[in-house]
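quick one, 139 residues, struct below
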Amino acid sequence: MPDPVPPRNSAMAVAASALKAQQSRMRVIAENIANAQSTAEVAGGEPYRRQIPVFQAREIDGATGVTLAQVRPDASPFRSEYDPSHPAANAEGYVMRPNVDTLVEAMDMREAQRAYEANLNVIETARTMETRTLDLLKR
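---
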């Protein structure tokens, strides 16, 4: 009779899925920050629109993990500023600016970093527990 296949560590798999999701979230936030001051390419056109990551639960080894399901545009209105000399100004002299608030993005980035660090701690704790369990079984 063949040896049964040992179950994978679902805690590590769930934490790894969260690491990947938070990494994707940080990439989206970085793109938002990079485009926070951009303007439209043509006069009267729309500037960069803030992107929002959307997560979805998924099953991993009998547990519930997470994945980045989509990145959707933020429907909030653009900011406008009066600058008739700007090349992207409309007929009234207003320039549309992205709907990105860098303070909000910085706070979101910090939250994503903390979630990433927490999931790294989960993986490290699971590894330590596995190692201790193996040490006990060797005795």
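Residues 102-138 form the longest helix (37 residues).
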